[in-house]
Recover the amino acids of this structure.
């Protein structure tokens, strides 16, 4: 039997929780059995702790010999306990990684994280870059790659997004300077295109060439999919226009940002740093542009023909449909199950 452990989620407005609940819903559709308590959404800290703990304590009694348990990582202090209990009951564990605490947050050392992840029989990593990082860090068991996070939503993209110049580039997410200081310099190199930002924390009065920006404020993801106005979605982090810098920029080298999936579900081709781990996916699927510097973007966008943009949009539609059906996690779970069941 294939099973998973659900938990309480304080909210689903954040990318991390949205990705986790989408995977849970996909597993439910695949017939996986929840060995914890029913998924819940309590914002209260005590309720959150209690519901998650009770689900963790219940799980060993619902797991049997030959089962495959899927865990979503990080599961904080419960992860090792659940893995040990599953193995004691004769089950195997597949771990879907969402975030690595040792890489960006430095919440633990690489050695500590590898010892923790060694309790899993197979890992589903974001992409080939994360797979190489894990192997080089010492993880020696099978690793499957997800490629991109799926994005479930009943909303349909705004069909008004068709080729028209000047283009508009969309940037959505947290807009505070700590993560995205580049935004305040971005306008000075946006000669032939406009910028539309969705999210909180941006002060346009402090940005260079503020007239280039249209600030939309925070919009929930389902609404954004249906209403986003623009021609491309930008995946970029850090303080520099010439590279993705700092801890956030370095993390892009192994990470699969959820906003990439959101843009595709909005019907928007992607613009991404060419050294980002998701750049090969964008390039191989023909769903956008990979750039070394945002200063290159003005000329690249000006040179795009209607035919080239139309092909990108067709490819985006194809990939978006797969994202809406949970196809990437379905395929990764099937591959992981095949690898560990064949041992």
């Amino acid at each position: 039997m294939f099973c998973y452990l659900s938990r309480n989620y304080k909210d689903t407005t954040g990318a991390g929780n949205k990705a986790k609940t989408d995977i849970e819903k996909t597993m439910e559709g695949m017939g996986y059995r929840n060995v914890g308590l029913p998924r819940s959404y309590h914002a209260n800290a005590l309720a959150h702790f209690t519901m998650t703990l009770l689900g963790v304590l219940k799980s060993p009694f619902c797991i049997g010999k030959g089962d495959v348990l899927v865990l979503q990582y990080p599961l904080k202090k419960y992860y090792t306990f659940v893995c040990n209990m599953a193995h004691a009951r004769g089950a195997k564990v597949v771990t879907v990684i969402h975030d690595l605490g040792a890489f960006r947050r430095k919440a633990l050392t690489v050695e500590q994280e590898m010892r923790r992840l060694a309790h899993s029989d197979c890992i589903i990593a974001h992409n080939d870059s994360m797979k190489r990082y894990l192997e080089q860090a010492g993880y020696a068991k099978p690793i499957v790659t997800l490629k991109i996070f799926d994005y479930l939503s009943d909303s349909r993209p705004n069909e008004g997004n068709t080729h028209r110049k000047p283009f508009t580039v969309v940037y959505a997410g947290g807009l505070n300077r700590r993560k995205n200081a580049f935004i305040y310099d971005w306008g000075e190199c946006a000669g032939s295109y406009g910028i539309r930002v969705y999210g909180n924390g941006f002060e346009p009065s402090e940005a260079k060439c503020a007239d280039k920006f249209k600030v939309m404020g925070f919009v929930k993801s389902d609404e954004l999919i249906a209403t986003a106005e623009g021609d491309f979605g930008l995946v970029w982090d850090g303080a520099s226009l010439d590279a993705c810098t700092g801890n956030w920029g370095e993390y892009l080298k192994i990470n699969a940002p959820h906003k990439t999936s959101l843009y595709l579900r909005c019907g928007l081709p992607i613009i991404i740093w060419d050294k980002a781990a998701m750049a090969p996916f964008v390039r191989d699927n023909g769903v956008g542009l990979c750039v070394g510097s945002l200063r290159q973007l003005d000329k690249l966008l000006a040179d795009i023909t209607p035919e080239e943009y139309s092909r990108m949009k067709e490819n985006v539609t194809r990939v978006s449909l797969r994202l809406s059906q949970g196809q990437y996690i379905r395929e990764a779970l099937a591959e992981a199950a095949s690898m560990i069941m064949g041992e």
